[in-house]
Amino acid sequence: MRHVIVGTAGHVDHGKSALIHALTGIETDRLREEKERGLSIELGFAYFNLPDGSRAGIVDVPGHEKFIRNMLSGAYGMDIVLLVVDSKEGVQEQTLEHLEILDLLGLSAGILVMTKADLVSPNQLAESSEMAQEMLVGTSLEGMPTVHVSSLTGQGLDALKNSIVQKVNAVAEVGQGDGIPRLYVDRVFTMQGFGAVVTGTLMTGDIHREQRLVVLPQGREVRVRGVQVHNESADRAHAGQRTALNLSGISADEIERGDTICPIGYSQVTDNIDVSLRVLSSFPRKLEHWTRLRFYLGTTETFCRAILLVDETVQRGETAQIQLRLERPILTFRGDRFIVRDFSAQHTVGGGQVINPFAARHKRFTEETLEVLDEWKSAGDADVISLVLTQSRELCIPQEFLHYYLSGSHTALEQNLKTLEIDKKIVRWKGGKQFISAVHRMEAAQATLLGALRDFHEQNPLAPGQNVAQLQRQIELDGTAFERIADRLIQGKQVIKDGNLLRMASHQIQFSAEAEGIKDQIEKVLLRAGLNTPNLGELETQFGEYPPHLIQQTFYALVNLDRFIKIADGYFIHSDTRKESLNLLTNYLRENDIITVAEFRELAKTSRKYAVPFLEYCDGQGITVRMDNYRRLRKSAG
To answer: For the chain, which ranges sit under pLDDT 50?
Structure first.
């Protein structure tokens, strides 16, 4: 079933609440002061069945100028608007301001409803209708149909319902279950025995019972205990439905109107956004840099500063690419419509769309900033993905992050990614969490890593490779990106990883003429010493004519070439000595079954200082097994 929200707009006392009561039989003025004063203060909600059998939710917004914020909260979720004008009074101040807001929000499906038609003559009704239609010229609602009604007599109500059905059929189908669900809270209260309850219009996607969500900007995780749609319990709420959620894990006094409820995986908030802003011609002055404004998105209200990037001012009636610096972080997606009012909340300044929800702080009046703004302004969906991947500080972007830029449909995002992948513009990294990179940045990072390794090998010809952590810091890649770039090069057999070292696959340890001489002398010393080898410090003293660092580099190069074998910390023997000593030990054990440290010491002509670590090395290698004070061959080594 198609789910739509029908909303009202118009001046105070023009009959919006009475119209809804006539359509639905539901009284939307629920507060005592509303009933006493005869005007709507808060949003009112109702629902009714249309002639085609579908059900529509309806939002009654307050018309009084003091309650514009409440009007904005209701307008944000509308699919269709009933712009209400009193047939006798005609267009009034709040009629125009509401129309400006609806136009800024891009709402194009509407019906002009001339109320109290029974109180005026046919001529006056025609004249009022004509004047009302004239105010629509140049707006998103230009040319919408007019219906004359009387909430008192019932005149025109059937015609209005039929007109709503036509509009419902014309409105594009909302992607149900295929977008990121967002519910902007417009009411919160406690229901005895149930706990916290919030209401709002579900913008996209679905929300179901037992789903885990997050309340923003607090970041509190909650569980959906129950769902109601149009005052009826349901297992699931769909996009376009008035929704009430019973939440566990939070109390009502920890939530307020303007908070947002969404899935945990799509809850990254922002306080710096690039936007396209149209300043209304009715705004009494030009917009200046660093002006403090009130920002409205959904039911959220926060203060912000206007950062003018191209000019010092934006004139009335002009549209400009600017940045808004928010004083309270919000959840927003590219394409979201917003409204800004002046600091005193006396005038609507203008509104527009979010262009980049996670914008960097730009330098004003630079060519680079102008170029970036132009790229974002004209970008299609695939271009937007490329811009995010190119301009982000991170090389590897989580795929779900792209939904902040293409929030409407998982399917549409996937199609765009497949096209970019086929065109070899992106790479999708394998692994548990899906990361994506721009190919040109990935190739540049690969080249940087390979270049750094080549330089390291040139400067350290005796080193087997570069420490992974050191290399990562050097090329300034985060852990996620470095791991994926390195793995790609390893799989491509360009790089080899050995423990915590990386080296070029083509790299071989190179000995200089001086190092070659040191190498030959050290090898001779260790071969003659057998198990009784000097340590590195003793070798440095013995070969004092050479620089200590060169002796160290040469020694460890021989270790990495497996010419010297590490037996214990600071204790190395020649590989030929290892082979001979192992043969000596295993032959003895095959004949005698067991051996003690003292017996091995005599057998190998060494001291306890060297015998013990060698035997412990053999234990660790799985050659022998210690039993009390003696050792025997492991069966597997026998």
So the answer is: 29-42, 63-65, 67, 174-177
